[in-house]
Amino acid sequence: MADFFVYAVKKMAKIIWEKIMKNEKLNQAYNAYVEARIPRTKPWPSLFNSFWVGGLICLLGQGINELLLYLFPSMAEQSAWAWTLVALIFLASFLTAIGVYDKIGKFAGGGSIVPITGFSNSITSPAIEFKHEGVIYGTCVKMFTIAGPVIVTGIVASVVVGLIYFVVGLI
Amino acid sequence: MQTIELKNHPKIIGSYSIVGPKEGAGPFGKYFDYVMKDDRLGEKTYEQTECKMLELSVTGAIQNAGLMIGDINLLLAGDLLNQIISSSYAARAFNMPYLGLFGACSTMAESLAVGAVLVNGKHFKNVVCATGSHFSTAERQFRFPLELGCQRVPTSQWTVTAAGASVLSLDGEGPEITKVTFGKVIDFGINDVNNMGAAMAPAAADTMFTHFQETKTKPEDFDLIVTGDLGKLGAEILVDLMEEKGYKLGKNYSDIGHSFFTRQQDTMCGGSGCGANASVLNSYIIKKMRQGLIKKLLFLPTGALMSTTASQQGETIPGVCHALVLEAGGK
């Protein structure tokens, strides 16, 4: 009797397992089929657009920096760079608020995401989006939903690099 | 059996559709009852707008049916937001029993099917079925903030700003719902939230196949077969899947999401959202059926039953699809 019971359980487990494996195979086949049908982005036009828009943003930054140094000859180079970043961040936030930056982003992709302006956009846009849920629970809480991971990774990476630098210095 | 034949032929005696400005500029623009001038309707938040759109479409459909709000015995509604707030909050405005439904983008079919069964059984006299979606609320809940500068992937779809409502009754004139097929939840292991079409196509194929089998019909028996919002890719996959099962979908097959926008409107694979099929059914399709241009229709909206939490936890996307047969009724 016990033997039969064990046999029945084993048999059932085998049937269920085979069914799962069969489904798994079907799913894999379907995923492969879908993968083959998916329309792709054309890499060259999008790479070209992100290249020139990204370059233009960097050029703008350089321009602002040069202008600052020209207008205020006594300014240290270090602080001129800081002010340049402030200007770019402000500009991107402003363009986000008036609804222009998302259009640039749609056109340029990575070209407008990678520079600091993209970072600014990623903080301003959720801040605007969630303002109806209040200043504290809306804007303040949700502000970093997109930029948060970038900041955390940045800080963690700099801590790691700092430690390595420290250890190497000891040797 | 998943198919129910409705012997008493419940009719859609009133319908109303309301859409946003972008949707109004699309191919179906001139058929909608009301095209909003902006995407807010004077409300403070987009969630309130979505709720208002549902209210307006319910009221509009009741008026269109020549009834008063007091004549309605039941409201069946659903939407895409968490805890289907748009529908439930819209239901506050009406003093009538309410059942909230969630079938994602298949909600219009789900509400019509449940409503039709209830009306057919003479449990309720007049039932309103409504659903709607808003681009901005869906973006916020499922994707990114509106102003974030990112690119959409080629398989993505555009959640439409639209709502639609129908009044079902045994008395009156209008297209009749003769058969309903309730669909199973089907998951073929797609986990890309930007590729809803591929996730939902197997569900559509399953329900369609079951419907053809159980009713002993063929695609050629219908003047028009429409799926909800599979989009361009999903519709192509469905045609392939049906061919595999031995049914060839011909020229009479079309997808609402795929044809909701023009190519210039840049929506990648097309429109999506409960509002898409609700608004097109309650404007274009019902009008054409009343004119007698479409006599027999198979309506199969599909829904992707995922949530952001499940997707982030790596879950795959289950799909569901319910089918309705609409026939232009005689007098």
Explain what this protein looks like in three dimensions.
The complex is a heterodimer of chains A (171) and B (331). Helix content of chain A is 84%, strand content 0%. With 171 residues, chain A is mainly α. Chain A folds into 2 domains: 1-39; 48-170, no CATH class. Chain B has 2 domains: 3-169, Stage V sporulation protein AD (Peroxisomal Thiolase, Chain A, domain 1, 3-Layer(aba) Sandwich); 176-327, Stage V sporulation protein AD (Peroxisomal Thiolase, Chain A, domain 1, 3-Layer(aba) Sandwich), CATH 3.40.47.40. Helix content of chain B is 34%, strand content 21%. The model of chain B has no long low-confidence stretch (mean pLDDT 93). Chain B has a 6-stranded mixed β-sheet with strand order 1-9-16-13-10-11, sandwiched between helices. Chain B has a 6-stranded mixed β-sheet with strand order 3-2-8-6-4-5, sandwiched between helices. Chain B is of the alpha/beta class and 331 residues long. Chain A binds chain B through residues 24, 26-28, 30-31, 33-34, 37-41, 46, 96-97, 99, 101-106, 108-109, 112-113, 118, 121-122, 124-126, 128-130, 132, 146, and chain B through 44-45, 140, 144-155, 188-190, 195, 198, 202, 232-233, 236-237, 240, 269, 316.
Spell out the helices and strands of chain B N to C.
EEHEHEHEHEHEEEHEHEHEHEEHEE
Q: Note the main sheet of chain B.
A: 6 strands, mixed
Query: What oligomeric state do these chains adopt?
Result: heterodimer
- Characterize the main sheet of chain A: none
Ends apart, CA distance between termini of chain B: 31 Å
Parts with pLDDT < 50 across at least 5 consecutive residues of chain A: none
Overall average pLDDT of chain B: 93
Secondary structure tally: strands of chain A:
0
Which helices and strands occur, and which strands form pairs?
The complex is a heterodimer of chains A (171) and B (331).
Chain A: H1 2-37, H2 43-71, H3 77-97, H4 101-108, H5 110-113, H6 116-129, H7 135-142, H8 148-170
Chain B: E1 3-5, E2 11-19, H1 21-24, E3 34-35, H2 46-64, E4 74-79, H3 85-91, E5 98-100, H4 107-120, E6 127-133, H5 135-142, E7 158-159, E8 162-169, E9 176-181, H6 196-215, E10 224-227, H7 231-244, E11 253-255, H8 256-259, E12 271-272, H9 274-290, E13 296-300, E14 302-304, H10 308-312, E15 319-321, E16 323-327
Helix pairs in contact in B: 2-3, 6-7
